[in-house]
Each structure stands twice: as structure tokens, then as C-alpha cells.
Amino acid sequence: MTVLTDFLATHQLLTILIVLAAGALLGQIKFGPLRFGAAGALFMGLVVGALDPRLGQDLGMIKGFGVVLFCYTVGLAAGSTFLSDLKRQWSLMLAGVVGLAAMAAAGLGLGRLLGLSPAHVAGLYAGVLTSPAIDAASTATHGAGDTLVGYALSYPVGVIVALIMVAFVAKRRWPASKDNTSMAEAGLTATSTFVDQETSIRETPGFSDDQIRMSYLLRDGEMRLAAPDDDLHVGDQVLVVGNPDDVNRAVEHLGHVSDRTLTDERHEIDFRRFLVSNPALVGRTLGSIDVRGRTSGKVTRVRRGDLDMLARDDIVLQPGDRVLCVVPANRLSDAADLFGDSEARVSQVDALSLGLGAALGLLLGALMVALPGGLQFELGTAAGPLVMGMILGSVHRTGPLRWQLPHATNAILRQLGLMIFLACVGLTSGPAFLSQAISWTGLAVVGVSGITLVLGGAIVIAAAWFMKLSAQRATGAFAGFVGQPAILGYANSLVNDERIESAYGALFALGTIVKIMLVQVIVLV
């Protein structure tokens, strides 16, 4: 064993890659309703790290690189919807602050009752919430060993308890009248409709507020593309695209479902998915692109990852989007030229915008702010890139710089960063976890960690239910409240819902700020 550990300690990158591979395998194994997913790297890291303390030494830079990759890419993804969802989520953010304060108070009370020091409580608070607040806790306790022990023991507890709570909540359905309908859940449908009355496209319910699109128009045996100013006459047939409920309302207004499938008739009007790889279109709204003038066609759908969205005028195009464009059959090549439609081009990572954006995030995270009472505050290497990613993700582009990444590229970098970070945390925490896990102090830390996390999580989830927000938004809010990237990954593996990431981004950023302040208060009390 000494020969093996000596070899692994000498070759740190090999050790990390072994942990990543073994952790990925562990993450695929089901334990009842749970599958650890990316968190498998954490638990495998704890096992390997416990073999020899040297295996977890000097991993700070690699761990930091992983967390920067993850947090920056999550920020980019969440930033595109954060501002539009802010009005809906401010009450959840307030509930998150209340939950964090309740956890700190409960941790102090239970810790004193069970004989834990303030350094233990500060460490377990940062660990069970898996946050960069451990840096602030270590500074406030002058590097006390109790702080690191509390962190090492509570970190895996936070992951396991949070996974169980997410598994319980993520797929639930409860009244959510104050939340928007998930685009992924509702889906899109296209219905060929026979017109029974004199009307117009603009008078059709849902058209003016971008809830439906119309493409094919069959009149007197001639197929053409519908235009917004078209009047519709009895006997016309049109194709209505949108969410099922919106399409049904439009069909009721127009007439009835046609026996004819207009999309089967592609001699004059055709359609195809085109890949957005033209850099001139990235970061621009669909309404600002003269699709009609340049192709004689119109876009009815935008597919981003696994999410198929109605082509609203305010949708901002991202590299790797696949747009469904309906055009005259002889203009397909013009549509391909407009959107780019190049796999090779979109697969190239814009290293300039990625590196610059992440660097700006690190600069933001490094800013130190002095607060009354001797407290200090900085966002750190996690929240800094996350906040900057959300800012740049909402801006989309600045001059020639396009901040957004292709969806597939974002997902790959996010997963890679997450697993690198978790593997390094496991390797670093393994020895402390092994030495204290079975002691009374270790059991007390584990117990307090689990109880306080259930308390704080229950406050956030109950607040979402009370405010009539969806279980999926509550799941994302809880994952952001905990601040554990693996929880977000697990929630996304259970449910395909864009509201999860939106809520995660909102509470992660705010929660990190609050945790950094409260962990210093815990030490002073």
C-alpha cells in the first residue's frame, strides 16, 4: 500500500483522474431512489484521500479551476432568464436569507448543547452548505483545526441530505398559480386548422402576445407562407404552432382541426432545422433579424439543448441553437447561409470571451469589503464567477464579444468543472473525515449538520409552496440555498425544467453573500 500511495502522491493529476473515473462509476449506481451522479467523485475522493494525507495536498489551484468553470457556466445559463424571473423570485430569495439565519441560530444552540466549539459550528455551517464560506471561517478562527474537522464531516452530510430532499420534491406537483409554465414541460404542438369564419391573423387569440405562430397558409389550392397582416377567409387552412392550450384557443376561434396535414405538402413551402453558427446573429433577438426579408420565410421554433421553445421575437439567439425555419422550397439555401448551419464552426469555443469573462468573475470575487464589527466580505472564487456569468449572460454580447457558449459546450465544461472540484474536495477532506467520523465530536457534527439543513431547506420549500410557486422552482431554490453543484446536477437529471437553474442562480449568489457574513458572526457569538 505504501508503494501505491507514494506513486499516487507523486502523480497528482493521475490520482484526480482515477477519482473522476471511479466517481463517475459510483455515480451511476442506484441506492434506492438515489443516484449520486457527479457527487460520486466526492465520495470516491473521500475514500482515496483517507489512504494518505499527501493525496489531498496542494490541490487548491486545481480545485479553484474546477469551481470557476462550473460557477461561470451556470451563471451564463441562468443569466438569460434571471432578470425576467427576478420579480417572481424575490420572495424566495428572502426566504433563503431567513433559512440561512435559522440554520446559524440552530447550529449555535445545538452545538453548545452537544459540546461543540464555535469553530466546529462555523466549519460545519460552511460544510453542510458546501460554500466558499470556509475561507471566511478559517480566517475568523485563525485556522483552527476544529473548523476543518467540522467542514470535512458536514460536507458529505450536506450532499446526502440534500439529495434525499431533492428526490422527494423535484417531481412533485402542487398548485403553482403564481409561477410560469415550464416551456420544457408544456411542449409545442402544430395543428392544421380549417377556417370557418372571416377573421385575420392578428385577431387570433395568442398571436399579438407571441403565444402562437402561424406558418403554412393554404388558399384556393395554393400553398404560401402566412403573413401577420393576412386576412383569413372561410375555407382557408393554416398551421398554428404553440403550447397545446394556446393552440386549442386559437383553433376554437378560427374553426376546427383540419383533416389535412399541411406540413406533408412540401413542394412549394418547406421547413428545416438550421444550426445557429453565424456569429453576427449570436446575442441578437430573433425579432431584430430580418428573416422574412432575407429568406422569404419565418422561424417558428428554437431548440436549445433538450428545450423546444416557440420563436418569440424577444428570444436571444445563442450559438448552437437549432431554429426551425419555414421557407419557400427554393430558398432553403438562403436560410442556411443566414443562420450559418455549420457544426464545425459552432463547436469551436470562443476562448477570448470565456477566458475574459471568467477572469472578470475572479476579479469580482477577489474584491474585499470591510464591514462594521471587524467583519470582512468577499465573493470568492465561486460566487464571483457566478455573479459575473449571470451579468454577462443577461447582456449576451458586448460589441464583437459574444458571451454565451453553445449549450453543449456549456454543459460539458460545467460537468467537467463540477467533478474536478468535488474530487479535490474529497481528496483534501478524506483524512479528517476518517479520523473524526466515529468519535462523539464527529457524531455531534453530523447530527447538527443534518438537523440544521433539514430546517433551512424546509423553510425554503415551504415558502415556495405558500407563495404558489412550482415544486421545480422550489427544487432549484433549495439547490442554490445549499450551494452544492452536485444537487443542481441531480435535480436536472430528474426533471427537464428551466425554472430549476433560474432559481438556483438567484439563491446561490445571494446565499453565498449571506453565508460569508453569518459564518463570521457564528465565531464572534
Q: What oligomeric state best describes the polypeptide chains here?
A: single chain
Structure class? alpha+beta
Strand count: 17
- Are there runs of 5+ residues with pLDDT below 50, and where? none
Instruction: Choose one word for the global shape.
Output: elongated
Instruction: Tally the helices.
Output: 19
- How would a crystallographer describe the biggest sheet? 5 strands, antiparallel
Helix share, percent: 55-70%
Approximate strand percentage: 5-15%
Read across the widest sheet, the strand sequence of neighbours is: 6-5-8-3-9
Give the overall average pLDDT: 83
Whole-number radius of gyration? 26 Å
> Roughly how many Å apart are the termini?
45 Å
Describe the fold and architecture:
By secondary structure, this protein is an alpha+beta fold. Helices cover 58% and strands 13% of the residues. The chain is built from 19 helices and 17 strands. The protein has helices at residues 2-10, 12-27, 40-49, 60-113, 118-128, 133-140, 145-169, 183-186, 244-254, 291-295, 332-339, 343-346, 351-366, 380-395, 407-436, 440-466, 471-482, 485-494, 498-524; strands spanning 30-31, 34-35, 189-195, 199-200, 212-219, 222-225, 231-232, 237-242, 255-257, 269-275, 298-304, 307-310, 322-328, 369-370, 376-377, 397-398, 401-402. A hairpin with a 2-residue loop joins β5 (212-219) and β6 (222-225). α2 packs across α3 (40-49). The longest helix has 54 residues, at 60-113. The two termini are 45 Å apart. The model has no long low-confidence stretch (mean pLDDT 83).
